[in-house]
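Weekly puzzle thread! Below is a chain. First person to post its structure in token form gets bragging rights.
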Amino acid sequence: MTAQPPDPDPARTSGLEAGGGVTPGELPPDSAQTSGVSAPQPRARRKYTPTVVVSIVVVTLFVLLFVATGVWLLFDLLA
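Winning reply:
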């Protein structure tokens, strides 16, 4: 079996004028499209951006403060 063409037959498509133009107010028939990036994207020079580094430092300080508070409360409870 032969595959059907992706575009409809222009002779049987409503809204087309002679020569293949589209009448005002009509949409063109659907057809297959290929989209994507035209050229390969360059690789990033840095693995970690400054924002990522600052975020890691802030989260680490928060966790250390949380652990230190827990240890302090534990010692205060036992004393």
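Puzzle host: Confirmed. Bonus trivia for everyone else. Residues 47-79 form one domain.
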